[in-house]
Amino acid sequence: MKPKTNEEKAVKATYFSIVGNTCLAIIKGIAGYFGNSYALIADAIESTTDIFSSFLVLFGIKYSNRPADKNHPYGHGRAEPLITFLVVGFLIASAVLIAHDSIINIRTPHSLPKSWTLFVLGAIIIWKEISFRLVFKRGKETNSSSLKADAWHHRSDAITSVAAFIGISIALFLGKGYESADDWAALFASGFIIYNSYLILRPALGEIMDEHVYDDLIETIRQVSLKVEGVIDTEKCFIRKSGMIYHVDLHATVDANISVKEGHEIAHILKDTLRLEIPELGHVLIHIEPHE
């Protein structure tokens, strides 16, 4: 049975991330320890931080979907981008930790990685890319910024695994003297993680600041509005995102000669129509403008 609501879809995707990251952290840690690969151990560290960040995302999704109350008339949706900031903090912390350990390991003599670790990494790369695509798709479907951030954790994990794969391959191919190639790969991957952190942070910051990035949704709102009898045109349309829903302020133009009561009824019909046609809308405030 498919999930019925955006919240259920997002929660299911988050549980998928938690289970997947837990299994991978264990596999990477064991493979890194017995395979003499510091890059795999660094990968395991990132997957461990991903587990905690996924729990944060889960909390954020559940909290942001709490209904509106007296103190929060617009709901609790703004909690989600705040959680995204924390998720980014986990990403940056893991990148710094990986970079720190990589630098230490580069300066410490150690044995070549085992060749079988490449097979482990190959499977991990495929799985993490699949996980990214699945979770990111759910993030787009549910309009969840924190779920998209969680998806980028999977992509970052895939990037670090690719770097580890390249590093271990170089170390094995060139042999003695190149034992630290996978450590350099882990260091290089930490830079990618920080860059991805910015890609996650930027949309969440725009959401908090009510940045105007909803032209497509505004066009849809205008098209739906013109289908309502009595609406001649639309003027200003402002949108703010809160969690998985969008709050709308819309100016609608009606005949200047109709009564206040008729204008009021048109506004209510317009509001109901918009919320019916576009389910992701939350509060819809209609301001009536007279058409001369």
Task: Give an overview in words.
The chain is mostly helical. It folds into two domains: 6-208, Alpha-lytic protease prodomain-like (Up-down Bundle); 215-291, Alpha-Beta Plaits (2-Layer Sandwich). Helix content is 67%, strand content 11%. It is built from eight helices and three strands, in the order αααααααββαβ. It has a three-stranded mixed β-sheet, with helices on one face. Helix 1 (6-34) runs antiparallel to helix 2 (38-64), helix 3 runs antiparallel to helix 6 and helix 5 (145-174) runs antiparallel to helix 6 (181-208). The model has no long low-confidence stretch (mean pLDDT 84).
Q: How many helices?
A: 8
The CATH class of the largest domain, by name, is Mainly Alpha
Order of helices and strands: HHHHHHHEEHE
How many domain units?
A: 2
Strand content: 5-15%
Structural class: mainly alpha
The CA-CA distance between the termini, in Å, is: 53 Å
Counting DSSP E segments of at least 2 residues, the number of strands comes to: 3
Largest sheet: spatial strand order: 1-2-3
Largest sheet: 3 strands, mixed
Please name the defining characteristics of this protein.
single chain; Alpha-Beta Plaits; mainly alpha; Alpha-lytic protease prodomain-like
Write the layout of secondary structure elements.
Layout: H1 6-34, H2 38-64, H3 79-106, H4 117-142, H5 145-174, H6 181-208, H7 215-225, E1 233-242, E2 245-255, H8 260-277, E3 281-291
Parallel strand pairs: 2-3
Antiparallel strand pairs: 1-2
Helix pairs in contact: 1-2, 1-4, 1-5, 2-3, 2-5, 2-6, 3-5, 3-6, 4-5, 5-6
